[in-house]
């Protein structure tokens, strides 16, 4: 019996031990099975899994970000839009993520697509554009509720982009322009109203003291002279002119 016959079992045993060693990182957990039956969760560090009796599946516990592909959606007010989103989730129960669903990442992604279709379809276009936070919160709540049996925690769902048809963009641009014109006219009308009210109050004040109007004329003259203007203005009281107007009417 040669030396190789003695070394062969030792080499095979060494290879078996090396194949049974698993290093699990800090952000991972290992779900183990003994002869196909669930046998617990392995913690991070050096673990010995005696193959082929034991098998192990490594689960990543970090936050996972998945894009929800653009979905063609018809809103509640019958507007066709294309919406995409992003979902952030993490596995909190690795045993359920393995035992309850075949592919937890694929299942969560597909559920996010169908949920996005149903939730956006229940809202109007104005809600979709102005109440984005409300829709995101509703998406997060529904997804978190449905993925909880899989050991998944959905932390955030964000609608990234709403693609409108070209005709709808033109209509919204005209609507926004008309709204701006309406506000400008209202502001101008309110300014005219306030100006007329102030002028009426000023006229009442000047009518109490006839000399105040003459002082206002003199103040206007000083303002005009400060402009280095060659034109000379002489303020004439209205009462002075009214006397000539009455005389002309009698004649």
> Domains counted in the coordinates: how many?
4
> What is the overall pLDDT average?
82
| Largest sheet strand order | 3-2-5
- Going by CATH, what is the homologous superfamily of the largest domain? Band 7 domain
* CATH-defined topology of the largest domain: Tetrahydropterin Synthase, Chain A
Q: Strand pairing plus helix content: what structural class?
A: alpha+beta
Order of helices and strands: HEEEEEEEHHHHEHHH
First-to-last CA distance: 156 Å
What does it look like?
The chain is of the alpha+beta class and 251 residues long. It folds into four domains: 13-59; 64-164, Tetrahydropterin Synthase, Chain A, CATH 3.30.479.30; 174-208; 210-251, no CATH class. It is 54% helix and 25% strand. Strands 3-2-5 form a three-stranded antiparallel sheet. A three-stranded antiparallel sheet has the order 6-7-8, with helices on one face. A two-stranded antiparallel ribbon has the order 1-4. Strand 6 and strand 7 form a beta hairpin. Helix 3 packs across helix 5 and helix 6 crosses helix 7 (210-225). The protein is rod-shaped.
